Amino acid sequence: MSERASGYLRLGVNIDHVATIRNARGGDHPDPVRAAELAAAAGADGITAHLREDRRHIRDADIARLMGEIGLPLNLEMAATPEMLSIALRHVPHACCIVPERREEVTTEGGLDAAGLHNHLKPIVDRLSEAGIRVSLFINADRRQLEAARSLGAPVVELHTGAYCDAALARESAKRDAELARLATAAREGAELGLEVHAGHGLTFDTVAPVAAMPELAELNIGHFLVGEAIFIGLDASIKQMRHAMDEARRGAGAENAGAKDRA
């Protein structure tokens, strides 16, 4: 059985911050679509791009080009607004991940309150689904949010890994372990609810392994770190090293689970 058929963990590469660098001076360089092409060649399984209300990085023209020029599935991150719904329905990407968005935030600060926003989200999820777009909700690792996602009819959730990564960076081991346990529980509960479970936000070479080892996860979406690391080692090498770290973690978890079954 092939690796992809036996628990392969997909890697979605977020190219937003290639566009951030471009927009710092204007013009067309560096080109996020070229970055997506390089990501595909390096082993990415999909491309993620967040079209924000203020267009601080990805622009409308980038989405049109990604849809027309890239062979990989596009995961469009979007706020739950009429404007973004209209754009998604016009382009019909493979997937749309609905995320919370505040104009003044530097980056996405937490998960979507799918439970509290149920009535607002329901018609948006329905419209996207009717168009054949796979809907994902970016949520915190919380049972209530998982159940809300299932109630809304979203087939996919993406667990926010930021709190775990922040605790690891701050060397707060107790908090890191607690956040990791929350993620593992949510991944298991999400799968039990029939959801496809993804994860992402803030993952690095140093923090990805414990998350990648969770057998219920189907995909990780990683961007800022890969683009930052590319300054030093190149985008190709950055993605390949992340791909290797994910594969090693998944293989190690599989071997450990097999050993546990043999001992039982």
Task: Summarize the model shown.
This protein has 264 residues and is of the alpha/beta class.
Structural features, described:
The protein has helices spanning 16-25, 32-42, 60-69, 82-91, 118-130, 143-152, 162-169, 173-192, 208-212, 224-233, 235-263, and strands at residues 10-14, 46-50, 74-78, 95-98, 134-139, 156-160, 196-200, 217-222. With 264 residues, the protein is of the alpha/beta class. It has a single domain, classed as TIM Barrel (Alpha-Beta Barrel), CATH 3.20.20.70. The protein has an eight-stranded parallel beta barrel with strand order 1-2-3-4-5-6-7-8, surrounded by seven helices. Strand 5 (134-139), helix 6 and strand 6 form a beta-alpha-beta unit. The longest helix has 29 residues, at 235-263.
Task: Using the alpha-carbon principal axes, give the shape.
Answer: globular
CATH uppermost class: Alpha Beta
Q: Over the alpha carbons, how many angstroms does the gyration radius reach?
A: 18 Å
Q: What is the H level of CATH, i.e. the homologous superfamily? A: Aldolase class I
Query: What sequence of helices (H) and strands (E) makes up the elements?
Result: EHHEHEHEHEHEHHEHEHH
% residues in beta strands: 15-25%
The largest β sheet comes out as: 8 strands, parallel, barrel
Mean pLDDT across all amino acids: 93
Number of domains: 1
Can you tell me the CATH architecture? Answer: Alpha-Beta Barrel
**Beta strand count:** 8
CA-to-CA gap between the ends? 24 Å
**Helical content class:** 40-55%
Uncertain runs with pLDDT below 50, 5 residues or more?
none
User: What is the fold named in CATH at topology level?
Assistant: TIM Barrel
The secondary-structure class comes to alpha/beta
- Please state how the strands of the largest beta sheet are arranged side by side: 1-2-3-4-5-6-7-8
